[in-house]
Write a structure and sequence with these properties.
This protein has helices at residues 4-19, 25-35, 39-51, 55-67, 71-84, 91-94. By secondary structure, the protein is an all-alpha fold. It starts with a helix and ends in a 10-residue tail after the last helix.
Length: 104
Amino acid sequence: MLSRDDSVEYRALLELAVVRGVYGSHILLGNVLAQIGNRDAAAHMYREGVASVDAHSAFNLGVLHHENDEFEQARAIFAEARRGGDLTRSPFDANPRLGGERDT
């Protein structure tokens, strides 16, 4: 776990990486934001990652929607992540009846 000072510095570096367009920085910053409870900002970063064709950002965005019981959005985003190459099992894979029919 990072100390408070290290965490602030890490976040600042990630914000700079996002501004400079470093591929993969959106998901990392989104993860930090989600961890500190800023879910709206995390979702924004994940959406930016999706726009840069990062399937892992799509998966993490799906997780946020799933945690908010927004199952239709989550299911669609998990499917997008899978099409993009993120083969991580979604909560729908573990429980196909959750929120409707199973993705294929």
